[in-house]
Amino acid sequence: MPGNRDDQERTERATPRKREEARKKGQVARSREVVSAAVLSACLICLYFQSSGAMERMMNMMRSSFRRSIAVTLSTDTVPALFAQTVLDMLILLGPLFLTVVLAGLASNTFQVGFQITAESVTPKLSKINPLEGFKRLFSLQSVMELVKSVMKLAIVGFVAYLAVRSELPHLIPLMDRSVPEILVFMGRVSFRILGTTCIILAFLAVLDYAYQRWELERTLRMSRQEIKDETKETEGDPLIKSRIRRIQQEMARKRMMAAVPKADVVITNPTHLAVAIRYDPERMAAPTVVAKGRGFLAATIRQVAERHRVPVVENKPVAQVLYKMVEVSGIIPENLYRAVAEILAFVYRLRENAS
């Protein structure tokens, strides 16, 4: 089937461009279990450090609420104000816990995917309300994994709570003779034990789930070789067109070099494999310049053009090799070759004087 064949062909890792596009769309490796474990752990730590004074602050809030209700005559005008004040007191009491939840959620998400703001994942799409697509998502591998994780979490938390309560059963009957603060301390101790053990287990599950989310993202972003080729064409251009452009550019550069050979003062050869054309104009140039160079067939062409235009051709293997390797076309010769090139130019100038 075409769809199965396409999936089988997706064996290549995603390219940086594909990853960046997926990130813009909100397709990132993000585990809800990491957020749950971070929020629960942060809340547990916050409650642990606030537990000593939380009861006293709660009692003070209740006393203040009762005093206000007694001091004020209850009516349709005073009840909303009393209710608003009570809600404000509760927000002040629970404010640190709410702030902890928000910070833990933001920190855990930022840790997983970095700072990112995208509206792609919440943009309305017709496919999201398509019953057939919804049915496919309902029975997809991701949905099954989410169901398994939820069942595992419920089972683990229930089992941990069961073990904690069972170990405290001998202490439940004596609670009948204890005071209310002592009963609350007992309940808090048992609750913290259950939550602490749950946090450790959720942290372990979060690591496993995050690893699975990364694997699932990599599997989803896999590309076929054809997709990589198509992306390369889009970003860098068609290789055939690029090759043709390079050939045209090389041909134009070759023509420019050949046009500069007749103006050269000398052509230094290897004698047959390399050819380097040198030109020197004391009034315009600080040093002799390479106006053309070539190897093999191109070297032979340079020699032919030079001979046709009566440009001297001098054989000097070491100088030709060094110039060909070190100096590009239109480049000035290095200082360590000044002496050797000057001797060649002097020899050429003497030949011209003798010929004249």
Characterization of this structure:
- The chain is mainly alpha-helical and 356 residues long.
- 68% of the residues lie in helices and 6% in strands.
- It has twelve helices and four strands; from the N terminus they run H-H-H-H-H-H-H-H-H-E-E-E-H-E-H-H.
- Strands 3-2-1-4 form a four-stranded mixed sheet, with helices on both faces.
- Helix 6 packs antiparallel against helix 7.
- The longest helix is centred in the middle third of the chain and has 42 residues, at 180-221.
- The protein is elongated, with a radius of gyration of 41 Å.
- The model is unreliable at 1-7 (pLDDT under 50).
Overview in brief:
68% of the residues lie in helices and 6% in strands. The protein has 12 helices and 4 strands.
Strand content: 5-15%
> Residue-averaged pLDDT, rounded?
80
Helix amount, in percent?
A: 55-70%
Unreliable stretches covering 5 or more consecutive residues? 1-7
> Biggest sheet, open or closed, and with what strands and sense?
4 strands, mixed
Question: Roughly how many Å is the radius of gyration?
Answer: 41 Å
Distance between the ends: 85 Å
- Structural class, please? mainly alpha
Q: Tell me which oligomeric state these chains represent.
A: single chain
| CA-based shape | elongated
Strands ordered across the widest β-sheet:
3-2-1-4
Number of helices: 12
| Succession of helices and strands | HHHHHHHHHEEEHEHH
Number of strands: 4
